[in-house]
Amino acid sequence: MKVSLTALILFVILGMTGCSHSVQPESLVSLPNTQVISPVHIEPQQKVIKKIDDSNSEQKSESAAVINNVKKDGLKVALTFDDGPDEKYTPLILDILKKEQVKATFFVVGEHAKEHPKMLKRVVDEGHVIGNHSWDHANLSEATADKIESEIVSTDDMIKQITGVTPTLFRAPYGAVSPQVLNASMKSGHQVIGWSVDTLDWDGKSVPQILNNVRKEVGPGAIILQHFAGGKHGKLGNTVEALPQIISYLRQKGYTLVTVPELLAAN
Q1: Short-list 147, 116, 152, CA closest to 132
Q2: Which candidate in 21, 73, 82, 137 is catalytic?
Q3: Whole-model pTM?
Q4: Which one from 112, 116, 128, 227 is the annotated catalytic residue?
Q5: Active site (annotated) includes residue 82
Q6: Which of 64, 138, 242, 257 has the least C-beta neighbours within 10 A?
Q7: pLDDT at 85 exceeding the cut of 50
């Protein structure tokens, strides 16, 4: 069979391209348009960083206004107790302190003072220092300015009514301090006191665990946190049992036990 030259050339070209049939436009795979796939827009981070910096500076100013310890060369530490008074554990703790001739600082909850005025008076009569620990141990960092002021002032008034003493120290419940808490405490003439050694006695820690917490965290100028009411399930027998051992250990290490005002005055 004779094939024309034109047909022969067309046959060769189709064979080289591998196309055996016509290609329909709709069978093509549509590739994304590069203009559609645009980069994800990322906002500059300066604003976020500024917020973080502002928050850090605010936290630093708050922490600077709260005394957690009094760093010094001398070996002095302060024992402090929170949340009382009560009729069960407060007298036991006072008995130990009296026997050991140690003066401590007690941060008092106003409603507990109202319920146990004689016990609060005993704390003062035996030479210990009283601090304000709010009226009902609410988280004041979440409260309004008026609520904070009311909690502090009402507790001051109750303590003064019972003992004749107006506290100059304030410890925020849970250690939760906000700018509003600082403002209210300073406005009412209080120095805000935190702690540097948390015995975790309130959490039901065993006596060895309490002692271990003291050993790990204590240092010159330390403020040691314990409790004289409350505790997990209302129990603080561990505090009572550990207290003489804490005092003995601190003295063996050369520490003198003082009240918070004495610690501040020695700075």
Answers
A1: 152
A2: 82
A3: 0.77
A4: 227
A5: yes
A6: 64
A7: yes
